Amino acid sequence: MKKLTVWDILKSPVVTEKAVIAKDELDEGARQVLTFRVNTNSNKDEIKKAVEEIFNVKVTAVRTVNYQGKMKRRGKFEGRRPSWKKAFVTLEKGAQVEYGEAI
Question: Using one digit for the tens of pLDDT, what is the confidence trace for 55-95?
């Protein structure tokens, strides 16, 4: 099996209202949480190393969620959207990443 590079592990940031609120909550004691769509075969250690290498920050925790693709129909034909994996990456206290600058 081909070894994944850091650019293969992190596919794209998830920019939803909930993810932006979690990223921008930097009041007293809050840590910045980044949300990414990641490769389905990557584990938490690989995700942590990829974020630390790309953004030059210290990661304290990684949480992952697997999403099943939804069934969709177009006329009489049925299909399934692809399944995907989302990672919530918590940064060290005081560390910040701006999506516009880094990505």
Answer: 999 999 999 999 999 999 999 999 999 999 999 999 988 77
Instruction: Decide if 51 contacts 17 (C-beta within 8 A).
Output: no
DSSP states of 77-95 as a string?
A: EEEEPPPEEEEEEEEPTT-
Residues in Cβ contact with 35 at an 8 Å cutoff, skipping those fewer than 6 apart: 13, 14, 16, 19, 22, 23, 86, 87, 88, 89
Tell me the one-letter amino acid at 96: Q
Q: Give the full edge-to-edge strand order of the sheet including 84-91.
A: 10-13, 33-38, 84-91, 59-67
